Amino acid sequence: MIEIGNVGLFCGLQRRHLTVVRRLGSLLDLSRGSVICTRGHAAGQFTVVLAGEVYVRREHRTIVCGPGSHFGAVELLARRPADATVWTESAVQALVFEPRAFTGMLDEVPAIGRRLMAELVKHVPDDTSLFCTGAEPADPKLAVLAG
Question: Is residue 133 in a domain?
Answer without folding.
Answer: no
